[in-house]
Amino acid sequence: MTVQRTGIYPGSFDPVTTGHIDIITRSRRLMDRLVVGVAVNTGKSPLFGFDERVDMLCAEIADLPSGAGMAEIEVRPIEGLLVRFARNCGASMIVRGLRAVSDFDYEFQMAGMNARMERDIETVFLMASERHTFIASRLVKEVALLGGDYSSFVPERVGRRLAEEVERHRERKASAD
Fold first, then answer.
1. What range defines the domain where residue 146 resides?
2. Is 44 a residue of the active site?
3. Is residue 1 part of a domain?
4. I want to staple 6 with a disulfide (CB 3.0 to 4.6 A). Which of 33, 115, 118, 132 is the partner?
C-alpha cells in the first residue's frame, strides 16, 4: 500500500507573486498532493479580498504543467492554527519559502512551535530561487501603490488585477479627501 505524501504551502498570497509560483512548482516534486492554504484572517490588511486571492492563485496554478512526478494541487482556506489545518488535510509537511536570513529567524521559531504542537508534521524550507529572493507581496503592493513597475514580480494576469485594484484604491482615497 502506497502512502500519499501531502504537504501544505500556506500564505496570504496578497498578491500571488512569481516567487510563490516558483515555490509551488518546486515543492510539487517533493510530495503527491500539495494543498495551497490561503489565510482568511491574515491580520495584514490585505489589498485583495479572500475570494480574489483564491481566484488569482487558482488561475496561475491552472497554467502549471502536470504529469508524472508532479503533485496534484488543491487550494483551500486556512483559519486558525496552521498545524490543525495541516492535520485536517492529512499533511505530513509544511512547505515554507525562505528569501533571506531574516525570514529564517521568524520561520525557525514558527517551525519549533508547530513541531511542539504536532510532532508528526515536519516543516520543509525551500530557498527562494536567486531571481526571486527579493520579491515579497508586501513590497510588490508598495511599489504598485507608489506607481512603480511591478510587472516582473507578478504573473501577467495578477499584474492586470493589481493595476485595477490600485486604481480603485486611488479612487477611494480621492473620494475620501
1. 6-176
2. yes
3. no
4. 33
Q: Distances in Å between the alpha carbon of 32 and those of 74, 93, 116, 120?
A: 11, 12, 25, 17
Q: Which of 12, 20, 92, 161 is catalytic?
A: 20
The answer to whether residue 48 is domain-embedded is yes
| Residue among 28, 92, 137, 161 flagged as catalytic | 137
User: Where is 126: in which H helix or E strand?
Assistant: strand 122-127
SS3 label, residue 125: strand
Q: Which three cell numbers stand for residue 152?
A: 516582473
All cell numbers assigned to 103? 525570514
Residue type, 175: S
Residue of 44, 84, 160, 172 with catalytic role: 44
Q: What's the number of domains the chain is made of?
A: 1
pTM: 0.90
Q: Which residue in the block uniquely carries the three cell numbers 501544505?
A: 8
Grid coordinates representing 160?
Answer: 492586470
Q: Spot the catalytic one: 26, 99, 157, 169.
A: 99
156-177 per-position pLDDT tens digit = 999 999 999 999 988 888 888 7
Lowest mean pLDDT among 85-94, 132-141, 143-152: 132-141
Q: Is residue 54 part of a domain?
A: yes
CATH number where 107 lies: 3.40.50.620
